[in-house]
Q: What sequence folds into this?
């Protein structure tokens, strides 16, 4: 090997060493940044403004990935924490959800009582009703006499859901074999005494009881003229 070849080999080795040194430097910088930033966790950001005392639902938030060390100790990283909660103050769009922004929803208000009824899973907005939701309760009744029309009525507007139980198979009774094989969910409401009587009556005597989920922030108000429906109304 002549001197020119030796110089070429030396330069090649030096180039490789420099490349390895540069790679090691970059890797060191990356590791240093990772050690300073730390692992990432999921936090939750508000999609829109939320008014005070509004029940919270998963649809009001979007997940964002952030370094854990940048989050405050009160940041919510598990969205199940909002179950049965309400906003304690006005929440602004884009804010990260903090545990001190939410409180437990009051179970009962003055003048209310807990009432639980079984709601057929197929007619009760299955899987979408959660504690804190607001629903309207509809019931259908046969006419009292053969010539009387069947009716659908709004039994309760703006009923507040306290709890949703587990899906339970229904057993047929002596008067209604059609219930066999169907499933129902026990749903507990916070109702005034008159509304408690209405929903109990509907559960006992209505052909069907259905729940209509009210949009977040709504009170479920239904005008008096729209609370009763007969098929003849559309003819």
A:
């Amino acid at each position: 090997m002549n001197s020119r070849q030796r110089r070429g080999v030396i330069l090649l080795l030096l180039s490789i060493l420099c490349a390895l040194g540069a790679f090691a430097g970059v890797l060191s910088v990356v590791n240093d940044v990772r050690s300073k930033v730390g692992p990432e966790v999921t936090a939750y950001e508000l999609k829109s403004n939320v008014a005070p005392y509004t029940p919270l639902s998963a649809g009001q938030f979007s997940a964002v990935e952030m370094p854990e060390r940048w989050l405050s100790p009160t940041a919510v990283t598990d969205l199940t924490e909002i179950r049965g909660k309400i906003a304690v103050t006005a929440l602004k769009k884009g804010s990260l959800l903090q545990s001190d922004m939410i409180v437990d929803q009051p179970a009962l208000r003055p003048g209310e009582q807990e009432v639980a009824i079984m709601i057929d899973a197929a007619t009760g907005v299955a899987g979408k009703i959660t504690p804190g939701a607001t629903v309207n309760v509809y019931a259908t009744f046969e006419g009292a006499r053969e010539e009387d029309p069947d009716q659908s009525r709004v039994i309760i507007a703006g009923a507040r859901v306290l709890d949703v139980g587990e899906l339970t198979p229904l057993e047929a009774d002596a008067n209604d074999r059609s219930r066999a094989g169907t499933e129902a969910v026990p749903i507990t409401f916070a109702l005034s005494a008159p509304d408690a009587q209405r929903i109990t009556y509907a559960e006992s005597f209505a052909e069907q009881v259905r729940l209509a989920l009210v949009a977040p922030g709504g009170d479920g108000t239904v005008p008096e003229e729209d609370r009763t429906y007969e098929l003849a109304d559309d003819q």
In short: The domain at 40-104 is CATH 3.90.1210.10 (Type Iii Antifreeze Protein Isoform Hplc 12).
